Amino acid sequence: MKDHPIDRRRALATLGALGLGASGLTLSRPRRAHAQTLGQHETVDEALKRLFGARPLKDGGGIVKLDLPLIAENGAVVPVSVDVTSPMTPANYVKTIYVVADKNRIPVVFRTTLGPEAGQAAIGATIRLGETGDVRAIVEQSDGTLLAVKREVKVTVGGCGG
Amino acid sequence: MEVTRRDLLKLLAVAGGAGISPRALAADDGGRHLLEFQALGNVTLLHMTDPHASLLPVFYREPDTLIGIGAERNYPPFVTGEAALRAWRLAPGTPEAYAYTHLDFAELAARYGRLGGYAHLATLVRRIRDERPGRTLLLDGGDTLQGSATALWSRGEDMVRAMNLLGVEAVTAHWEFMYGVERVRELFGDAEHRGLFTGDFLAHNVSEAGFGDRIFKPYTVRAVGGVNVAVIGQAFPYTVVAHPRRLVGDLAFGIREDQVQALVDEARDRGKADVVVLLSHNGISVDLKLAARVTGLDVILGGHTHDALVEPIRVRHTLVVNSGSHGKFLSRLDLDVRSGRIVASRYRLIPVLARLLPEDPAMARLIREVRSPHDAKLTERLAVSESLLYRRGNFNGPFDEVILDALLKRADAEIAFSPGFRWGLTILPGQAITLEDVYGHTALTYANTWTREMKGADVHRVMEDVADNLFHPDPYYRQGGDMVRLGGVSYTIDPAKPVGRRITDVRVGGRPLDPAHRYKATGWASLGEASGPPAWDVVAAHLRSVGHLRLDPRPRVRVV
Predict the structure, then answer these.
(1) How far is A70 from A156, CA to CA, in rounded Å?
(2) Which of B315, B338, B369 is the last residue of a domain?
(3) Which of A36, B171, B391, B523 holds its CA 20 to 30 A away from the CA of B294?
(4) Measured between CA atoms, how close is B345 to chain A, in angstroms?
């Protein structure tokens, strides 16, 4: 779905009133009354191409542990942690951890630079998610290898029945 | 219930037509055999869940439509009707068919009567405790404080008193939180303090949203029949998403699989547990997935999705039990535990056949005490229904249609929304609908109605979102509940499709939904603010004006 800021804002207002969920979601939404000038508006494919060019992204399953809720309780504050199994020695360490939210207007949420002096490659943060989509952790190791994992996070209108 | 003699004769005639032979009727013991149980081993776990404040015996029709996704499809619990009879090897027209399926519901209800009720349940529990002294543990999976007028008006207190009298030893929660976390603390206590409840309130997966401090006791270890039984409490993981943030906004929940594993290990190592039980409000599909991914869990006693699982499902070494809802059933799981291992087990989902279980006098007294100040109001007869009315099922049920009709009429709207709740009792043909019955379908702390304009595209988006919460291929993304109920609308759904592509051919008043058109919409149970009158007033006013209700089938959902 292509994002039209105005339509989406109106849709969210409707959902909030409808109340099948969304009060938190409405609050959580970055205000779009004025076009945001800071930050790189791009698609996730453009972002990955810009950051990594044609370099291959290997499957980081088993090495990179990405933890975040499956259904966001509040899209404005979604806790995320990335934990990478790495010796963190000068010869072999994790250099950078990126967190990318595919559906955010600015998909590259943050990048963290690490060195062997960190002792371990583990970070935690709170991020903001606009809507349901994949969140990826991409790890660049000191030898230049890129490892990626992802997980779908649902930002729902909520309401339930059980 | 108001069933006249003529109605009864009619029902029996239908029963004859439904293939229930007169001989089977003669040999019928009314279900007595279901109350007998050959004891086994040293531990008896008694489990009830999702009673939804049903203090009195109930009619509650199990669903006719319950769709499983992918590998779940057509396997228990995703079997209904004839398929359920085949899966569980049951005969039609029996007390089992009545309790466990929707088949011939009105006819069999007339024959076997209501199920559940705390006074009858108390008698059954006492009998089992007398038979197995020191060997029983009674656990309640939660959704106990919501679903009746008296529970709403006493903000859950009447139910906690009933739980105490019943002797519930541990409980976990979901709808309890609709009264706000402070009320939950008052009634149930927390990790440091006791509340009104005399047992343990267990919820390892509830913490403060900011620093993540755990609020409630995560588990308890009880000596039962000479062995240690650990019970870990798992509250409904998506409580925050499912209810207004003003009630639960400062809390974080979640499935927390790693934490479950850590607590299982801790209970075995530090708690010296021989048996580890998860008292879960996950919903059955989440229970089954969790059982496959956590090691060392012996038993999951589950609720939330109201599945009346006739036999446990074994996942690797874990027995998964789900015990229905509304007090219809008491699960009894006998375990033979030797050297820290379960060597044998025996189970029954016992239908609490009220006719065969005399009331426990103390519980009956408490129930009278709770109800008597409100008796005149509760028993007001609003209308008589010619039709069978129920809510449970994946899509609109006839009681939903009554609510939707009431909403559409009041707001003069084109589209009405009502949540796909799985609670709410069944009304038999010929039965009077009382104000209490209406509260039984609407008793929320956020029951206000709303009316506003809504774009066709947004209507479709809401439908897709709710369908994804019900039919996501990964159970961990499901919230439970059924499809949102829609009035004035018909549609086609393909549950196996991905989100955004399940719902097609949406029609409003028979005409295709126009994404750009603004429709007049109405609904209730908003998670945001809503200022219209509460749903019970709207529905009661509608029923009073109708007087006599007849609902012909409305084919508004086509499933492909």
Answers:
(1) 11
(2) B369
(3) B171
(4) 29
Q: Does one domain contain both B364 and B383?
A: no
> Looking at CA atoms only, how far is residue B342 from chain A in angstroms?
31
B489 in the same domain as B464: yes
pTM, to two decimals: 0.89
Q: Which residues contact A119 (CB under 8 A, 6 or more apart)?
A: A88
Look-up of token digits 């800071």: A38
The residue to which tokens 């408490």 are assigned: B366
Same domain, B271 and B149: yes
One domain, residues B347 and B477: no
Q: How far is it, in rounded angstroms, from Cα B204 to Cα B77? A: 27
Q: Which of B369, B397, B418 is the last residue of a domain?
A: B369
CB contact under 8 A, B241 and A21: yes
Q: Which residues contact A54 (CB under 8 A, 6 or more apart)?
A: none
Whether residues B452 and A14 touch (CB distance < 8 A) is answered with: yes
Disruptive mutation site among A18, A77, A78, A80 for chain B (greatest number of B CBs within 10 Å): A18
Judge contact between B396 and B554, C-beta under 8 A.
yes
- Mean per-residue pLDDT pooled into runs of 10, chain B (560 residues): 46 48 63 97 98 98 97 94 97 97 98 98 98 98 98 98 98 97 96 96 94 94 98 96 88 95 97 97 98 98 98 97 98 96 97 98 98 98 98 97 98 97 97 98 97 95 94 93 96 96 97 98 92 97 97 93
* Closest CB to A17 among B245, B450, B457: B450
User: Using CA atoms, how far apart are residues B329 and B347, in angstroms rounded to an integer?
Assistant: 12
**Chain A: closest CA distance from residue B290 (Å):** 14
> What is the CATH T-level fold of the domain A41-153, as seen in this structure?
Immunoglobulin-like (2.60.40)
Tell me if B405 is assigned to some domain. Answer: yes
Instruction: Residue B507: give the domain boundaries.
Output: 379-559
- The answer to whether residue B105 is domain-embedded is no
Reported ipTM: 0.73
Judging contacts by C-beta atoms under 8 Å, the chain A residues touching residue B249 are: 24, 74
Q: Say if B75 falls within a structural domain.
A: no
Does one domain contain both B325 and B423? no
Q: Chain B residue with minimal CA distance to A156?
A: B465
Residue A71, strand partner residues = A154
Ordered by start, the domain boundaries in chain A are 41-153
Q: Provide, as residue numbers in chain B, all residues whose Cβ is less than 8 Å from the Cβ of A134.
A: none
Q: B422 to each of B326, B378, B429, B440, B444, how far by Cα in Å?
A: 10, 22, 21, 11, 14
List the Cα angle B529/B535/B540 in 5-degree steps: 160
Please, which residues have CB within 8 angstroms of residue B194's CB and are 6 or more apart in sequence?
none
Do residues A144 and A79 lie in contact, with contact meaning Cβ atoms separated by under 8 Å?
no
Which value, to the nearest 10 degrees, does the dihedral of the CA atoms of residues B311, B312, B316, B318 take? -160
Amino acid at B134: G
Instruction: Count the domains in chain B.
Output: 2
